[in-house]
Amino acid sequence: MDLEDTLLMMPGPVSVAPRVLRAMSKPMINHRSAEFAGIYTDCREILSNIFKTDNDIFLLSGSGTAGMEAAVGSVVGKGDKVIAIENGKFGERFKDIAALYADVVPAVFEWGLPIDLELIKEKLEEGAKAITLVHNETSTGILNPAAEIGKLARKHDALFIMDGVTSIGGDDVRVDEWGVDIAVVGSQKCLAAPPGLSIVSVSEKAFEAMKEVTKRPYYNDLLAYKKSGDKPKPETPYTPAIPLFYALQEALHIIKEEGMDARIKRHRILSEAVRAAVAELNIEMFPQLNESSHYSNTISAMKAPAGIEGEDIKNDMRKQGVIIAGGQERLKNKIFRIGCMGNVTSRDVLSTIQQLEIVLN
Ligand code: PLP
Fold first, then answer.
1. How many Å apart are CA 350 and CA 332, to the nearest integer?
2. Is the C-alpha dihedral spanning 18, 23, 24, 26 positive or negative?
3. Ligand 1 binding pocket, CB closer than 6 Å
4. Which SUPFAM superfamilies match (predicted)?
């Protein structure tokens, strides 16, 4: 396969711009220097705008899952109750991580089905220190009701920890307005940087909670990130993945140049185009929606048509140089997924749909 002539339409990693790739070849610098502090500060400022928050922002060397673990592990400990909402694979992952650090109260819905807010309300009424939600459940293509969960969490004084790994940078995320105490994104998704960094925003309330937790993760301790990030020359507690910081900074400048509103609009239009095109091909969308959930604007999950396995569609597309995703775990072969993340263009979507039509006929 010609890697330089491949169309990546999967839910991350996504294609990165040549200028982002070039940024990674710059010389190494001291990570405790004014140069590094400048890059870190610049990234944090642009990210604040993308997250729509005044909360502290930290860049962790590690993929999105590192950010998920940092978030949960830093604020809860054994004996603390964490309501873990699951309606897909990444909700399940949050639940598994929470179980390592605290006492989990599972709120499990069938993968692909919407969340029942009444049930979440009942669980919160019984008391919990934190609640976890995956905003954009990549495994099923459903956009979960983050604003509503935020409102409920605030009312019941629970910390709201949100996985925005595949929504932040591509969809409308309002960390402060929704009351998200910790939000997480991965560099390789809508931010269109290479994989390897996760970015988290942390509220004052979350920092207060951390001070009471005695067994926080060592490497991904968010209080350690706070201490280093608050220095006059901000830094990270341990040696960061410097080339990835170079790349992320460049990718963030691309976002700034496009503007977040335009970027969100582009993601919406292209995802709508995918949905309209597959409907024309008589393919059904996989998620079932209710009034508070929506189709994802960054990843579309479709049912594999009768008689065709999702993996076959994925593999046949791959042979044509278009990389899409199949279903994960229990959804393997049942669905296939087309990502519209990062710097995807209408030409990319048209090529993907054209190939899909050929593969299905
Ligand atoms: N959360 C969501 C919603 C994701 O889509 C993913 C990855 O696809 C992750 C978490 C995990 O991220 P990573 O693979 O970067 O650790």
1. 25
2. positive
3. 11-12, 63-65, 90, 134, 138, 163, 165-166, 186
4. PLP-dependent transferases
Residue from 195, 169, 218 nearest 57 by CA: 169
**How many angstroms does the Cα of residue 186 sit away from the middle of ligand 1?**
7
Atom of ligand 1 lying closest to residue 11 CA: 8
Rounded distance, CA 305 to CA 283, Å? 6
CA dihedral 144→148→152→153, nearest 10 degrees, is 60
Convert the pLDDT of each residue in 1-42 to its tens digit.
788 889 999 999 999 999 999 999 999 999 999 999 999 999
**pLDDT tens sequence across 269-295:** 999 999 999 999 999 999 999 999 999
Spatial CA neighbour of 149 closest among 170, 119, 127: 119
* Pocket perturbation via mutation, ligand 1, pick of 10, 69, 165 by most ligand atoms within 8 A of CB: 165
Query: CA-to-CA distance for 188 and 49, rounded, in angstroms?
Result: 18
Please list the residues that pair with 139 across neighbouring strands.
none
> Residue with structure tokens 């990130």?
225
Alpha helix locations (H) across the chain? 18-23, 34-51, 64-75, 89-101, 117-125, 146-155, 175-178, 204-211, 222-229, 242-258, 260-280, 310-319, 346-360
Sequence-separated (6 or more) residues with CB below 8 Å from residue 240: 31, 36, 59, 61
Closest CA relative to residue 104, chosen from 70, 137, 75, 78: 78
Say whether the ipTM exceeds 0.90.
yes
Instruction: Report the C-alpha gap between 41 and 39 in whole angstroms.
Output: 5
Phi-psi label, residue 223: left if phi above 0, alpha if psi -120 to 50, beta otherwise: alpha
Q: Cα separation of 46 and 256, whole Å? A: 7
Nearest to 80 by CA among 127, 133, 121: 127
DSSP structural state of residue 5: G
Does the pLDDT value for residue 129 go beyond 80? yes
223-248 tens-digit pLDDT: 999 999 999 999 999 999 999 999 99
pLDDT at 238: 98
